[in-house]
Structure formats: structure tokens, C-alpha cells
């Protein structure tokens, strides 16, 4: 049974299982990596960096739009999980993209943490019950990732 959380709107939501969050993140990373590798294969040694950069930016823009409108990246959508704020609504662009993702990167830079170390901390937070499956980004923004 998945733990539940009661948000300020009075509704009770099932927290997303750790494996779904990990799988969604891995899928998003894998898609971006596969796209980059395909582009580098199609344009080997080409000095036209924009031929690689533009499709990657388009992919990042698509993920940003999905997260802003639905609180879901492609991976989260596929695994039927989404980000909600403490009121049980979609955090939108400011809450989901800027605060959760951009602020997380700024924290990494500020504390000079290697990205791998920070993601290991987040993974531990997902797997240790006392953290209620909330990562650094969730705690920073007061958000929660729930199952649909």
C-alpha cells in the first residue's frame, strides 16, 4: 500500500511509489540522451552546432511546457504520476519548472555539490520512509509527487 498525504485542499492523495519516480526520471534522461546521440551520429564532426542544439532545446521546451501545464514530464505522464503544490493544484511554470528545477540547479552551484552527489541524496530521500518520498526539490517548494 502506498502512503497517502492530505494536502491543504482537504483531499487525500497517494504518494507516487519511489520506483515510478525513478523510472520517470530515467526515461526523461534516457530520451534526452538518445536524442543527443542520434543527432551527434547524424552530424558527425559537423561545425553546425545549431543542428544539434536546436532539437535539444525543442525537447527541453516541450518538457517545460508539459511540466508547466500538467505538472508532468513525458516520463511522469507515462508512469501516471504528477507534481502538485501544497494546495493540491498544478504548481505551473513558476512552481514546477523555475522553483523545482532551476532552483535545484542553483543550489547545486551554490553549495558546489557535484550533480551526482545531489541526485544520490534525492534517491536516499525517496527510499527512506521518514522523508515521505519527498526529495530536495519537493521539500524546497512544498510540493509532492502523487499517483494518478
UniProtKB/TrEMBL annotation:
The membrane topology term of the UniProt record is:
Multi-pass membrane protein
* Key words of the record: Cell membrane, Membrane, Transmembrane, Transmembrane helix
Q: Offer one Pfam family short name for this entry.
A: RDD
Query: One GO CC annotation, please?
Result: plasma membrane
Alphabetized InterPro entries for the sequence? Pra-immunoreactive, RDD
The record lists the membrane-crossing segments as 22-42, 49-69, 102-128
Residue ranges constituting the RDD domain according to the UniProt record:
16-142
UniProt keyword Transmembrane helix present: yes
Q: Where in the cell is it found?
A: Cell membrane
From which domain of life does this come? Bacteria
Q: Provide the protein name.
A: RDD family protein
Q: What organism does the UniProt record list as the source? A: Eikenella corrodens ATCC 23834
Amino acid at each position: 500500500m502506498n502512503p497517502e498525504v492530505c494536502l491543504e485542499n482537504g483531499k487525500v492523495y497517494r504518494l507516487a511509489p519511489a520506483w515510478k519516480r525513478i523510472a520517470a526520471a530515467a526515461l526523461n534522461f534516457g530520451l534526452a540522451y538518445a536524442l543527443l546521440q542520434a543527432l551527434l551520429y547524424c552530424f558527425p564532426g559537423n561545425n553546425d552546432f545549431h543542428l544539434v542544439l536546436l532539437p535539444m532545446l525543442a525537447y527541453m521546451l516541450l518538457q517545460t511546457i508539459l511540466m508547466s501545464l500538467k505538472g508532468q514530464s513525458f516520463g511522469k505522464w507515462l508512469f501516471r504520476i504528477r507534481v502538485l503544490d501544497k494546495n493540491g493544484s498544478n504548481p505551473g511554470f513558476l512552481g514546477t519548472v523555475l522553483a523545482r528545477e532551476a532552483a535545484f540547479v542553483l543550489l547545486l552551484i551554490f553549495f558546489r555539490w557535484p550533480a551526482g552527489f545531489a541526485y544520490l541524496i534525492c534517491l536516499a530521500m525517496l527510499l527512506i520512509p521518514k522523508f515521505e518520498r519527498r526529495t530536495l526539490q519537493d521539500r524546497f517548494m512544498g510540493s509532492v509527487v502523487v499517483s494518478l
